[in-house]
Request: fold
Amino acid sequence: MPARHDIVRDGERPTDSTVLLEGFACRYKLLSGGRRQILAFLIPGDICDLQLLVMDSMDHSVATLTPCRVASFPRKTIDHLCELSPALLRRLWRETVLDAAIHREWIASLGRRSPYERVAHLFCELTHRLQAIGAVREGRFEFPMTQADLGDAVGLSVVHVNRTLQQMRADGLITLRANVLTILDEARLKAAARFSGDFLGAGVAVAPEQG
Reply:
């Protein structure tokens, strides 16, 4: 799929579910006047529309941020496999619990964290999740989100996001060049965000069972 393309739209009733294999995507709600609130960033391995396994329609949209490769599978197939495999059902339940934990942290950021803490906390979350799938190299990872995307995720204007990023650079915590984010001092970044990875559990990725 190309960048900036809806995978599934709010209100749709697709018969298939989708998993992200390559690239970055986001969940979002579009409000009146074109205002957008990004609800989550999706990375390879994430199921884009897990709620469709128990609900008939989407209550938000999912869009690509970069060119993406996805796989789709019939919902009925997953229902059947879950009946046959309690282990698969547990893995999907774990995914749901993890999503809920991340959403709670985002709510806390929007409601109580300072702008600096919001951005730092998001960077720490992405670092942790991308490390779990081997997508971080020497503190560097792909970060294709624009400042508008970042603002829509943390509830800040583009101007405020820009100022926050400049301050984080000046503090020696990050660099952001050519869509690559480098965490220069992860310990200090976590301290600035008051970040604990406990809400992400032992790690995002779960190795597939053999057989």
